[in-house]
Structure formats: structure tokens, C-alpha cells
From TrEMBL, chain A:
Principal place of residence: cytoplasm
UniProt protein name: Spermatogenesis-defective protein 39 homolog
Species for this entry: Falco tinnunculus (Common kestrel)
The keyword Phosphoprotein is annotated on this UniProt entry: no
Annotated InterPro entries: Spe-39, Vps16_C_sf
Keywords: Cytoplasmic vesicle, Endosome
From TrEMBL, chain B:
Membrane topology: Peripheral membrane protein
Name used for this protein in its record: Vacuolar protein sorting-associated protein 33B
Keyword Coiled coil attributed: no
One CC-aspect GO term: lysosomal membrane
Family label: Belongs to the STXBP/unc-18/SEC1 family.
GO BP term, pick one: vesicle-mediated transport
Domain of life: Eukaryota
Native source species: Falco tinnunculus
Gene3D superfamilies: 1.25.40.850, 3.40.50.1910, 3.40.50.2060, Syntaxin Binding Protein 1, Chain A, domain 2
Protein localization: Late endosome membrane; Lysosome membrane
Length: 491, 617
């Protein structure tokens, strides 16, 4: 660990990246703060009256408020709308604030003055003369004009016509040979829209086994059919196809995916139970098993705790009412929940942390991180202490953690742990530099003093004296260390 | 196009015409349904539409009420409904339900569906199946190209990424080809075309096919854009997966830039409301910091605010006349600048706060180690801890993918353990996400595939490149090996720098990643343009799985004096990030050329990861 730390330090100090750090006590931030102050001080001169910052687009036109307007209709047209729309309203950006613009838009003005390109000239000339009506059909002609049922286009021409959005009848491709040539042409034409169109036709006119067999050797077309079936939700056909292709794992995943659409937890649990037997890889089977077990547990815990909470006899639930249900939450969240509400329970109960740890084989590291966060949140410092205390065979206690102690400090600090608690863990941070940083940052004076003493760094220690309060115990301690003649200072 | 020293960067062509074309066509289509009508707009189309039209334009063409297309049944008294939608099966069912409900209650209305950018046969099939074909009329609004800025054009098709790279669906290739056709007819002819990737190749072929038919009306015309470069996103996933540290990229990663504008929340505006801000070259403050490394931004902003202060201070000691002048001529500009300045300072502060909280420093360090390929063990445990602490599901996925791509897949033991912990931290249903990531090749497990590589390379020594490419294709159906390490070595993507990399005075494109890595995608473009082709890059091409091309159109006059020779349309199929845009803008300045970006959508690591998650139907 200390090796790694040292490497890290070295990396940052030696390398080219030193110029910039995201540390909050950085020069740059204070520089930024200063700029902010400067700018803010100008605010009274420059009040926000007339600025049109958010209205100007880079073409200089006012960008109107279509999104805003939709929110308007949504909230005003009906009174029976759900809260979703009102939240749209609430989170309003300043779009809501500016008035509707009446633009001086006119069609003929659009193309005036744009004669720069020779190729464009013809187009824009035509336009400014006759307005948009004559020009637009150039862009878009009703597709119906091209309808052609009697034609005998070659497969290639058929594909080309379809690529250009023209309607073509495929009915005349009746022999399997013709159908396949058509499909191959579609694939060669690179237009997925046409490939899918041909596949829809093939799906309608071929027995599925034959279609599947032919697609097996046409991977691109196969992808299109699979995607199409996913989008249209033809689950049964999709599963048949995947089975035919021997893609058993995909069969399993595709079925498992359906659970996302099941809202009711009981039904979802039943469904997941059915998923356990699906042909997943060995590894995934255990994940599915865990998914099922987790939801099963959550249902039990949820029922119990809701009851407890309603009865109002459990102190923890009274003090910290639950914010959300635990159903469908990830395992780690469930563990956090159980460390928060059920920490002291015996291993036998479903809701006890130890039980969860055992059932789901949660690694130590993960467990400790989660338990620490939960107990720190409750400010249960004794529990935190116990989490890291181990006894050796002689009965001595020692602090040990599967995670770096700097992480422990960080989590404790985030939960506003008192200095006494914090400094105990800061002291345990192995890397000296990190330890000093953390100790200074969180005002763990004792740790700072001890570390400088151990480093025999008189200069730093003397300098630190001005950071502690006059006449405090810390100052006294520094003085006594400085006066200690036993220490052989390095400077 | 040769890079002959520094020259003035040519001005980009005017893309405003694209907006006008789209707007005109929409108006024409609306008028095809004369009289008052209610307009239902697909959520995804609202922001793009906002950029080219506004409510009053719609009102002028007798649009009465506006609704968002969603699952709620429409309650309206209008006689005519117009639906402005993407061609999606789900939307067709929504429309069919409305029509059928009206039929049941004996209501008669006119219905029109306007598909953007094009109609799909599968949609018509659904309408037919639902029994409403014939009750509705269909049209296409060929709104392929939305100019987001003076050098960025977006197709606003974020779904392209998943549809093509994950599902293997070629449905958007036609749209891309048509978009190219339109650009070629307005700003071409493009004399030189380069590309890499299967989709790039197919799009190019289909586009040429379309061009052949349209009987080259642009022959002999003087082009505004002379070169085009097409690239598939899967040529380079690494760059898209890195944390962005140029300002525009950071703003995108932190606040999500949507269609060229961003919503700055109360934490940025230091008031109780949020403000929608357009971020583009028109914003005088933003345009100066967008491409800068984040660390240079502070200095710039503080300098700027000092200047502003000084300008205001000039007021003191002015007489009435001077004051009048000041107020009438300068005050408005200063106010505008003040407003922008305080917004961007607020944004910086908010970014700093968020990044400090998330261990950004450590994360960047882990990323750099992955890119350089050392301390993999340590980075792996960093990722593990990130997952265990339930930090962010998307960030965790991103880091795992970066590990996988740079290492050519995870060691099976790590794969299993990270996957298990991920499922425990963020939910078991992510089993589906992992499956998707494996299929697309973003997060894979090292396995028997290793032996395949040996076969592959032996085979490729025996046969020609082209055949080898085919064999490689056959080996990896959709997912491909990344070979990142080898490519990085070949192209020198990790700059060897003595001393400190000066981020304020960048020497190469690596500055967009703090000097640690030159974006692969941009490096390829640089190399190919420099060599006017792929000559000498054979090994790199092989490692990238081939599908490269380089074509010059002999019928197009090639006059080196034309500015168009120094304008390159860089087409990103599957999305491009702001970091890549910044890198190429930098390259352009260095080499005296101008890059125009055409992308299926602006992307970021988060958008890519989100596209891999299965949502309920």
C-alpha cells in the first residue's frame, strides 16, 4: 500500500500533469473565487433587466420556444394531467420567462441575397420568383405518383427503387430463388430500411424454418430480422429463431429481459423463479438465482418493516422514517438498509446484515464499506470502532481494514464525525504525506504534531504552531515536543 | 491536401442555408394539411426544431396546439392532427391507438404523419397491421442536417450508435448517404474522399450510387469543401471513453449540452432559476475558452473580469457627454459580457465542486495509467472500489470498458469479479447491460480469442491484405478486437515529454487529455491527410481491422490554390466528442486548414454507456 502511495505521489510531483489539480484548496479555485467576487461586485451596475442572452441564436434569429409552448399546452389544455407535467413546469428554465416572439418571417425573403453559388442560383432564382410552392415539390414529391404494380423490375432495380422511397410490389418474387436474390440485393445495397422491408415480405411468404435456414448463412439480414422482432415485440418468433440458431444464452437473456416490464413484485418474483432454469452460462445462472433470492428477501423485509413502522413501536423507524421502499433495490443498497435498521439482529433473521453477507457471499471489502457508511450515518461510533477492531491470540486489539484508512476517514468525515473519532483513523493512514494532508485538512492537531515529531521535522512543526489556538493544549504539546532534548531533529 | 506550414485558417462555409431549407420544407408540409391543426411532436425532435423554427412560424401555418408525443392519450377537439415523429414502431402504435380510439367513438379527423428524416417500411407495416393505413397520410421531412455551430453539423440521431454498432441494423445508412448528397450538392463537389470502417464504406458507396443518378449537376463548379473523411466510431472507442478536460467537453460531461444549448441550474446561476444558454462561436466568452484545457480557463476568466472591471471603472471621471456615449455605445456590450462571464465562472465553480467530490484526480490518474499500460492491477482495484462505493453506475461502466479496450479484454478472473460486484452494487438487471457490452466489444473477457489472433496474423502474412480483412471480419462478427496497445505504439499516441507539459501552450493534440494521450481518431485523420492516403499506414490499418479507402474524383478540378482544398469535412458515424472537436480545431490551426464536423450526434462516454442499458418497453 505505502509503495503504491509513494508511486502516486511521485507521479504527481514528477510528471507533466502537476500544473493542475482538482484540489479544493487550490490556487486556481481561489483565483476563480476572486474573479467571481469581482464580477459580482459589478452586479449593481449591471442589473439583469434587458439582456437577451438566452434568446439569441448564432444565426442571430430569435430562437422561439417550441418546447416551452408544448409545456404550456400540456398544462393548460386539460386539468386531469398527472404531476409529471407540472414538474416539467416547475423545473422551468427561463424559457418560461420570455414572451412569445412575433417574427417577421416571410417566405420570399428567405432566399433573397443568396446567389453566391452557381449551382444554387438556378434553385434560388426559381424560388424568389414563384415562392415556395413551386420549389418544394422538387424536394418532396408525393410517393404515390411512382406506384407501379405491373412492373417487372429486376431484383436490383427493385432494391434501388425502394432505396429511393418508391413503392414497389414484391408480390411477384414467388420462387425461393427469386426471394433470396432479392434479399441479397437488398443487403448489397446497404440500406437497412430496404433489407427489413424485404424481410417482412419473406417472413410473410415463407415458412419460418425455411426463412431461418436461409438467414443462418446471411448474417447481416439475420441481424435485421432479430432487431425487427425485438422492436415489434414478436417475442415468440424471436425465441424460436434464436433456438433454431442454437443461441441458447440469448434465448435465456431475452426471456429474462421481460421481467423489466413486470410491475407487480409478486409476479416479478414468480417470473424470476422461472428464469432460474433457463440456459444461462453457469456464472449467470448464479446471478439470476441471486436476483430471485434478493427480491424474495426484499418482499419479506418490506412487509415486516412496513408493519413495524406503522405500529410506531420501533425507535429507529420513528427516528428515521423510511424514505423509499427497499423493493427492487440493488444488493448493496439492501445491505446498507439492513445495516441501518437491522444492525444488531441475529444471523438467523432474513434482514440481518450478517445473513445477507453470507447468503450473497458479499466480499469483506464491500461489506465493510457499506456497514461503515450506514453506521457513520447514524453516528454510531462504537459500531464503527468495532468494525475495524481485531484481537490477536494474545488478546491485544489492533485496527485493521480491508480498505485504505484514507477511505474510512473520507466516509467518516462526510458524515461529520467528531475530531476525536476522525483522528483515530487519520493516525492509521499509512502513507505519511496523505496522513499529514488529511490531518491538516480536518484539524486533527495531535496527529499532525506526532507525525512531524516522528519525521523529526522541527521547521514544519514550528510553522504549525501558528495554526493552533493560542494557549491551547495543542500549543502546549508542540512546545513540549520542541523542547524535548531527546529528539534529534533533522533540521 | 498537404500540410504546408502554418497558413491562415480558411473561413467555414455558411451553413445557415441548411436551416432555411429544413424550415421551408416543414412549412410546405404543414401547408399540405390546410386549416387549423394540432401538432404532436416527438420529444427528440423538439430541441432540433427549436433551432430552426419557433412557435410563431408554426402558428402562421395554422398550427393550433402543440403536444408532446408520449403515452398519454390526446384530448383535443381539433379536426386535424399532424404528427412530427422519428420513424419508430412504438410511435406508430401510439398514433394508431389515437386513430382507433377516434374511430370507436365515431369521431372523424384528418391525420398526417411527418417522418423525420425519413419513413421506414416497418412503420408503414405497423400502420397497416393496426388497421389505420389509409386513414393517415404519410410524408417525409428530409431534415438530415442541423448546423449546431459554424463548424458543427449534427444529424441528431443518437440512436444510430446502438442501432448500427449493437444491433447491426443498417437503417440509417441511407439517411447518411442522403445527408452527404445534400452537402455535396451545396458545398461540394468533394474532390477527395477518405474513410475507415465498414459503415463509412457502405455510406460512401450508397452516396456515390445516389450521386451517379443525379447526373452531376455540380461538375465544374468551384467547391467550398474539398475533402471528406468518414470514420466509424468503433475505430476508436478509447478516446470517447476518456474523461474530458477541455472546457466544452467538461461542460458536456457535467451539464449535458443538448442540441448546442445547456441548462445552467441554480448552482451555476446563483439565483433560484435556471438559464438556458446557447453555447457557440457567437458567445464571446465561451468561444475563447471552449477549446482550452480546464486549467487554463481560470486564468482567462480572471483576466477577463479584471478587464471588465477596468472598463466599468472608466465611468468615474467622465463628464455628461462621455457618460452618454458610454451608456449608448458600450454599456450593452459590457452588460452582455458581464452576464456571460458570471455564467461561465459559475459553471467552472460548479464543475470544480462536483469533480473534487468524486475523486476526479484519482480517476484521471487511473485513466492515464490504463492508456499508458502500466499499473493495471492498481487501476483495476481503483475501479473495483469505485463500484463497491456505488459511486456512479455510468462512470463505473465507463472505466471497466476503458480497461477492457486498452487491455484487449479483461482477464476472466477480473471480469467475473468486477461483473459480480457491479451487479451487487447497481442491480442484477445489469446482466443485460454486460451482455450488450460484450456483443458490441466494449467490455469483453479474454478467452480462446487469443489463439485466434495467432491464426489471424499467420493467415494475414500468407494472403493479401484485403483477403486478410475478410478473414478478420469472419472471425469477429460484430465485436472486434481493439489492439489498442499496438496501435498506440505505432502511432505514438502517448507523448514522451521531458519536463512539464505546458497546457496553456499546447504542442500537440494531446493537450485535450492533459498531455497524456493523443486522441486516436484525430491522429488517424492527421496522418491520412498528411500522406494524402493510407500509404505507409498498412500495419495500423490491419490493426484497425481494415475497411479503409481513399478516392479522388478525377472529374473534379483540383486547384491547389482554392481554399476548399484546405477545408475538410470530418464525418463521425456513431458520434463525436467535444474533445475530438477541440483536438481537430487545434490541428487545423496548426496546419492552416479548417475542419467541419458532421456527426450522427454529439456523444460522450456517458451517452455511449447509457445506450447500452436495457430499458423497459
Amino acid at each position: 500500500m505505502s509503495r503504491a502511495r509513494a508511486d502516486e505521489e511521485e507521479y504527481w510531483h514528477s510528471s507533466k500533469f502537476r500544473a493542475f489539480t482538482f484540489d479544493d484548496e487550490d490556487d486556481e479555485l481561489s483565483q476563480l473565487k476572486e474573479s467571481k467576487r469581482a464580477v459580482n461586485s459589478l452586479r449593481d451596475i449591471v442589473d439583469d433587466d434587458d439582456d437577451d442572452l438566452e434568446r439569441v441564436s448564432w444565426s442571430g434569429e430569435p430562437v422561439g420556444s417550441i418546447s416551452w409552448s408544448i409545456k404550456e399546452t400540456a398544462s393548460s389544455s386539460t386539468s386531469s394531467l398527472e404531476s409529471r407535467d407540472s414538474s416539467l413546469q416547475k423545473g422551468s428554465s427561463s424559457y418560461a420567462a420570455f414572451p412569445k416572439q412575433v417574427s417577421s418571417y416571410s417566405l420570399s425573403s428567405l432566399f433573397k441575397g443568396r446567389n453566391r453559388l452557381p449551382s444554387f442560383q438556378s434553385l434560388s432564382d426559381a424560388l424568389s420568383d414563384t415562392g415556395v410552392k413551386n420549389y418544394a415539390p422538387e424536394l418532396r414529391r408525393p410517393k404515390a405518383e411512382y406506384k407501379d404494380y405491373s412492373s417487372d423490375w429486376s431484383p436490383k432495380d427493385t432494391v434501388r427503387r425502394m432505396q429511393r422511397g418508391k413503392i414497389c410490389s414484391l408480390e411477384r418474387f414467388r420462387s425461393l430463388q427469386d426471394k433470396l436474390v432479392l434479399l441479397d440485393e437488398a443487403v448489397a445495397g446497404h440500406d437497412g430500411n430496404v433489407i427489413t422491408a424485404v424481410l417482412i415480405f419473406l417472413k410473410r411468404t415463407l415458412r419460418r424454418e425455411i426463412l431461418f435456414r436461409e438467414l443462418e448463412v446471411r448474417q447481416v439480414a439475420l441481424c435485421h430480422l432479430i432487431h425487427f422482432l425485438k422492436e415489434t415485440g414478436e417475442q415468440k418468433l424471436l425465441l424460436d429463431l434464436l433456438r433454431f440458431l442454437d443461441r441458447t444464452e440469448e434465448v435465456a437473456l431475452s426471456q429474462y429481459r421481460e421481467h423489466l416490464n413486470i410491475q407487480d413484485v409478486e409476479k416479478r418474483r414468480e417470473f424470476l423463479k422461472g428464469c432460474i432454469g433457463l440456459p444461462f452460462s453457469a456464472e449467470d445462472t448464479s446471478h439470476i438465482q441471486d436476483h430471485y433470492t434478493l427480491l424474495e428477501r426484499q418482499i419479506i423485509i418490506e412487509a415486516n418493516d412496513r408493519h413495524l413502522e406503522m405500529a410506531g413501536q420501533s425507535e429507529i423507524f420513528r427516528k428515521y422514517p423510511r424514505k423509499a421502499s427497499i423493493l427492487n433495490m440493488p444488493l448493496v443498497t439492501t445491505l446498507f438498509y439492513s445495516c441501518f435498521y437491522h444492525y444488531t439482529e441475529a444471523e438467523g433473521t432474513f434482514s440481518s446484515p450478517t445473513n445477507l453477507k453470507k447468503t450473497f457471499k458479499i466480499p469483506d471489502k464491500q461489506y465493510v464499506l457499506t456497514a461503515l457508511a450506514a453506521r457513520a450515518k447514524l453516528r454510531a461510533w462504537d459500531d464503527v470502532d468495532a468494525l475495524f477492531t481485531t484481537k490477536n491470540w494474545l488478546g491485544y486489539t489492533k485496527k485493521k481494514a480491508p480498505i485504505g484508512f484514507h477511505r474510512v476517514v473520507e466516509i467518516l468525515q462526510r458524515n461529520n464525525a467528531p475530531v476525536q473519532v476522525l483522528q483515530e483513523y487519520v493516525r492509521l493512514v499509512e502513507d505519511v504525506e496523505t496522513r499529514l494532508n488529511l490531518a491538516t485538512k480536518y484539524k486533527c492537531h495531535d496527529v499532525v504534531i506526532e507525525t512531524y515529531r516522528d519525521l523529526k521535522d522541527r521547521i514544519q512543526l514550528t510553522a504549525y504552531k501558528c495554526k493552533v489556538e493560542r494557549g491551547s493544549a495543542e500549543e502546549e504539546k508542540i512546545n513540549s515536543v520542541l523542547n524535548n532534548t531527546q529528539i534529534r531533529w533533522k533540521n | 491536401m498537404a500540410f504546408a506550414g502554418r497558413r491562415d485558417v480558411p473561413e467555414p462555409p455558411d451553413f445557415g442555408i441548411l436551416k432555411r431549407l429544413a424550415r421551408d420544407q416543414l412549412i410546405y408540409l404543414l401547408e399540405q394539411l390546410p386549416g387549423k391543426k394540432d401538432l404532436f411532436i416527438e420529444a427528440d425532435l423538439m430541441s432540433p426544431l427549436d433551432r430552426i423554427a419557433n412557435v410563431s412560424i408554426l402558428k402562421q401555418h395554422e398550427v393550433d396546439k402543440l403536444y408532446k408525443v408520449d403515452s398519454r392519450p390526446a384530448l383535443s377537439t381539433s379536426d386535424q392532427f399532424c404528427f412530427l415523429v422519428r420513424p419508430r414502431i412504438k410511435t406508430m402504435r401510439y398514433i394508431a391507438d389515437i386513430v382507433n380510439a377516434d374511430k370507436m367513438s365515431g369521431r372523424s379527423r384528418k391525420y398526417k404523419i411527418i417522418f423525420s428524416p425519413q419513413k421506414f417500411y416497418a412503420c408503414e407495416m405497423v400502420l397497416e397491421e393496426e388497421g389505420v393505413f389509409g386513414d393517415v397520410t404519410c410524408d417525409e421531412w428530409s431534415f438530415y442536417l442541423l448546423p449546431l455551430d459554424e463548424d458543427i453539423i449534427s444529424m441528431e440521431l443518437p440512436e444510430f450508435f446502438r442501432d448500427y454498432f449493437l444491433e447491426g441494423d443498417h437503417r440509417w445508412i441511407n439517411s447518411i448517404a442522403r445527408a452527404l448528397q445534400l452537402l455535396n450538392s451545396l458545398y461540394g463537389p468533394f474532390g477527395k474522399a477518405y474513410g475507415i470502417g465498414r459503415c463509412a464504406k457502405m455510406s460512401y458507396e450508397l452516396w456515390r450510387d445516389l450521386e451517379e443518378e443525379s447526373e452531376g449537376d455540380g461538375q465544374g463548379r468551384r467547391p467550398e469543401i474539398g475533402n471528406i473523411f468518414l470514420m466509424d466510431r468503433d475505430t476508436d472507442y478509447v478516446t470517447a471513453l476518456c474523461s474530458q478536460v477541455v472546457y466544452e467537453g467538461l461542460v458536456d460531461d457535467t451539464f449535458r449540452i443538448k442540441c448546442g444549448s445547456v441548462d445552467f441550474g441554480p448552482d451555476v446561476t446563483s439565483s433560484d432559476k435556471s438559464i438556458k444558454v446557447l453555447l457557440n462561436a457567437q458567445d464571446k466568452v465561451f468561444s475563447q475558452i471552449r477549446n482550452e484545457h480546464f486549467s487554463s480557463v481560470f486564468g482567462f476568466l480572471s483576466q477577463k473580469s479584471r478587464n471588465l472591471q477596468a472598463q466599468y471603472d472608466r465611468r468615474r471621471g467622465m463628464d455628461i457627454k462621455q457618460m452618454k456615449n458610454f451608456v449608448s455605445q458600450e454599456l450593452k456590450g459590457l452588460k452582455q459580457e458581464h452576464r456571460l462571464l458570471s455564467l461561465h465562472i459559475g459553471a467552472c465553480e460548479s464543475i470544480m465542486k462536483k469533480k473534487t467530490k468524486q475523486d476526479f484526480q484519482e480517476m484521471i490518474k487511473a485513466e492515464h495509467s490504463l492508456l499508458e499500460g502500466f499499473d493495471i492491477r492498481e487501476s483495476t482495484s481503483f475501479i473495483e472500489e469505485h463500484i463497491d462505493r456505488q459511486v456512479s453506475p455510468i462512470e463505473s461502466l465507463r472505466l471497466m470498458c476503458l480497461l477492457s479496450i486498452t487491455e484487449n479484454g479483461l482477464v476472466p478472473k477480473d471480469y467475473r469479479s468486477l461483473k459480480t460486484q457491479y451487479l451487487q452494487s447497481y442491480g442484477p438487471e445489469h446482466l443485460l447491460t454486460f451482455h450488450n457490452l460484450k456483443r458490441i466489444g466494449l467490455l469483453t473477457e479474454q478467452s480462446a480469442g487469443e489463439t485466434l489472433t495467432a491464426v489471424e496474423s499467420r493467415v494475414s502474412k500468407l494472403v493479401t491484405d484485403r483477403a486478410a480483412g475478410k478473414i478478420t471480419d469472419a472471425f469477429n462478427s460484430l465485436a472486434r478486437r481493439s489492439n489498442f496497445r499496438a496501435i498506440s505504439k505505432k502511432l505514438g499516441l502517448i507523448p514522451r515529454v521531458d519536463g512539464e507539459y505546458d497546457l496553456k501552450m499546447p504542442r500537440d493534440m494531446a493537450y485535450v487529455f492533459s498531455g497524456a494521450y493523443i486522441p486516436l481518431s484525430c491522429k488517424i485523420i492527421e496522418q491520412v491527410l498528411e500522406r494524402r492516403g493510407w500509404l505507409g499506414l498498412e500495419e495500423v490499418v490491419r490493426l484497425l481491422n481494415g475497411n479503409e479507402f481513399s478516392v479522388s474524383d478525377s472529374s473534379v478540378e483540383d486547384n491547389p490554390a482554392w481554399e476548399s482544398q484546405r477545408i475538410v469535412l470530418a464525418v463521425f458515424l456513431g458520434g463525436c466528442t467535444f474533445s475530438e472537436i477541440a483536438a481537430l480545431r487545434f490541428l487545423g490551426k496548426e496546419r492552416g486548414c479548417k475542419f467541419i464536423f458532421l456527426t450522427t450526434a454529439i456523444t460522450s462516454s456517458a451517452r455511449m454507456m447509457e445506450a447500452m442499458i436495457e430499458a423497459k418497453a
